Amino acid sequence: MGQGALAFLAQFSAWESNLGRSTISTLRGVTAMLIYTARRLLLAIPTLVLISMLIFAVMQLQPGGFLSNYLDDPRFSEETVNNIKRQFGLDQPLHIQYWNWLTSIVFRGDFGFSFLSGRPVSSIIWERVGWTVALASLTLAITWLIAVPLGIATALRRRGVLATGSNFLGYMGLATPDFLIALLLIYMVLSLGGTNVGGLFSPQYIDAPWSWDRFINFLSHLWIPIVAMSAEGLAGLMRQMRANLLDVLGMDYIRTARAKGLAERVVIYRHAVRNAINPMISLAGLSLPQLISSDIVVAKLLSLPTMGPLLLDSLFAKDQQVAMAILMLSAVLLVVGNLLADIALSLADPRIRYD
Amino acid sequence: MFKDRNSPLYLAWRRFLRHRPGVLSAVVLLLLYLMALFAGFIAPYSVATQHVGSGNQPPQRIYFFHEGQLRRPFVYALKKERDPVTFLQIYKEDRTQPMPIRFLVRGDSYSFYGLRSNLHLFGVENGTIFLMGSDKLGRDIFSRTVIGSQISLTVGLVGVAISFVIGILMGGISGYYGGWVDLVIQRVIEVLLSIPRLPILLALATIIPSNWPSTYVYLGIVAVLAFIGWASLARVVRGQVIALRDIEYVTAARALGQKDLTIIARHITPNISSYLIIAATLALPGYILGESTLSFLGLGVKEPMASWGLLLADAQDLSALSQYPWMLWPGAFIVLSVLCYNFVGDALRDAADVRSMD
């Protein structure tokens, strides 16, 4: 070994000790996490391919198609319909159709053509992405902001009005279908003489520029769908948070913390809640499917401009390319959501190892 | 009932009885299923009987006193009037016309498991009795709800039964053999669980042709629900089977030359039955809610059948909802049955002392 190498080693070890252990382990942690993320992403690809096959197969099993409706119309000859089919490659064998569909999504971002509205699918979906994401994230935020504190409060005070009331609401929330909650709220508002039901704005505000009045009008329309969409998730998360905290409160280290004379506030929030909240993070990924399904039912009922009603309409009209695109997007969302939840969990909980 | 006072089953039964809401819910569920069993007899009218001129009638109250006199239970006849201000059609009780409720009366004929009958638990003569009001075609919502329970309450049982067979088989094979079989089945389960449930249910429901007879549609809906439902059950079974795979009595059965499927079905499954029963009870509400959502959206059972979700579909007309809120009554039955299943599931879980399940 030459002089230079020895000097380098000495320098390196000095650098390493200067850097300190924590930084090194953080660096190792970050690389490990990057590798873990990359592996999870790679593993998600075959799943997504299988999902796309399933979705394609299900939509092909639908009896009839949108174009067969044309045959009932005397203005369309069978030849015209066949021409349209040829133009869109719908006369090809199924496996080629599937391949074309998948590759044009992956390589060109082209989700196909909506026969119902006569426009490319991506433009129809883009119109609705904004409100869908806005509504979903608002619902998610409100669900968590209410569920976690309520779960903590009921775990700490297991008897009393608040605990009994929220337990009751929890059970009811899990047992009541979201559309029934929406119907009850709508009836309540209408019977009290309100009119702000359905849609996002009252007619006079639809095309108006944003103003304070318009915002208030928006909120008065928004609370019904948000309450209806969050009820089930709220009930589930609250019960979970309560159960987690009760589990943690029985642990030895809580007794130790109390025994060494820590303030109760510190014991609860620094020690107990901090540990009870970790399992909740992995539940965040699970609240996505609930949001998606609530969006279908509630948004349909209240005619909101989101993806859910679009999926329903396209399924009823056999506008298959739109339905396939939305199904696929929601599956991707779910897979990515679960991945993000796992990563967030590993960031919050240093005990999680990536193997 | 129990000979051995120390048997695990007896102890579990004792623990179950201690769970008050669970016991109460079990009784309510029993009553609901009895109602479904004798639906044709309990409902005063058939599911499709239209009372012309009695559309959107509000629920009739049951009275016991007429002009200060105690009588047998009766309802007043309703007469139509125009509201002098809004000109809307309203119903008013005709206080001069009490209609006593008669028990065991003859009415619409129905089929009771092959037997034709027209005997009904109660009814009135020369008038109508609508305990939960009527819909826009003048059909009794109470009768439709009672008869609809036959579909809403059995979808869960049949669906869970189907998904059980698939789930135990797939989960059992997956856990028992391991290796590439396990890998393939796990992938399939993962795919089924990674598609959002309602969208794929809706897509599958559109496969059912609209011209099918109603029995087929019913089975189709159940099949669609079970197609998605077996996956999570198979996961539970797989985990348990892996734990039991190398336990002595399984090894012994294998040494005696039993077939693998027999071992899974006769030796492993009975030993995880407590897990299975709890998983079933906890899965049932999902089927009830799933069916009601599908029917509510018009992709489930269709007229002339009735289910609770389908009955609620009438309320999608929001202006009708604000005037005739009694059309939400079937919703109360959905909530009640799901609530009861959740309580019974909790009680069973506590009784079996299976902590790891959620």
Task: Throw out a few tags for this protein.
heterodimer; A: 355 residues; mainly alpha; MetI-like fold; two-stranded antiparallel ribbon; 78% helix; globular; B: 358 residues; alpha+beta; 2 domains; three-stranded antiparallel sheet; 14% strand; elongated
Describe the fold and architecture.
The complex is a heterodimer of chains A (355) and B (358). Chain A has 355 residues and is mainly alpha-helical. Chain A has a domain at 130-348: MetI-like fold (Orthogonal Bundle). Chain A contains 14 helices and two strands; from the N terminus they run H-H-H-H-H-E-E-H-H-H-H-H-H-H-H-H. The longest helix of chain A has 41 residues, at 21-61. The model of chain A has no long low-confidence stretch (mean pLDDT 82). The longest helix of chain B has 37 residues, at 141-177. The two termini of chain B are 30 Å apart. In chain B, the strands form two sheets. In chain B, strands 1-2-3 form a three-stranded antiparallel β-sheet, with no helix packed on it. Chain B is α+β, with helices and mostly antiparallel strands.
